[in-house]
Design a protein that fits this description.
The protein is mainly β and 121 residues long. It has one domain: Jelly Rolls. Helix content is 0%, strand content 38%. A six-stranded mixed sheet has the order 1-3-5-9-10-7, with no helix packed on it. A four-stranded mixed sheet has the order 2-4-6-8, with no helix packed on it. The radius of gyration is 13 Å and the shape is globular. The model has no long low-confidence stretch (mean pLDDT 92).
Length: 121
């Protein structure tokens, strides 16, 4: 993991996966989360990657999405294996809620899936 960082990141209003603020640095600190559910999106889950994200807002939870297929996430293998990345035990393309004032480490050991510390949900 390198030491690139971004302070004062702004979560995208509206909480959508597509168009969400991209997380591009190993350490990202969000200070602007105007409404609960504003969003950011991780890069495609590739083995060996790690990112630490802090929601530094005092009151608003934010959503962190895995990459959709159109954002470089897992392409899927037909109708029974959906396209897009996943976080923990959540379904593909479902956001991870990061409460106000909390941090989480995302890491990938299987392409297409992010795991977290702490490991909730």
């Amino acid at each position: 993991m390198d030491s690139s960082y971004q302070n004062a990141a702004v979560a995208t209003a509206g909480g959508a996966q597509l168009g969400a603020t991209p997380i591009t640095r190993c350490y990202t600190r969000f200070t602007v989360v105007v409404t609960a559910g504003d969003s950011a999106v991780l890069p495609p889950a590739s083995t060996g990657l790690e990112y630490v994200v802090k929601n530094a807002h005092a009151t608003n939870s934010m959503n962190i999405f895995p990459a959709a297929a159109s954002q470089g996430g897992f392409r899927g293998d037909g109708p029974n294996i959906p396209a897009g990345d996943a976080i923990n035990a959540l379904a593909v393309n479902v956001a991870f809620a990061l409460p106000a004032g909390k941090s989480v480490r995302f890491f990938c050991v299987v392409n297409g899936t992010w795991d977290t510390l702490p490991s909730i949900p």
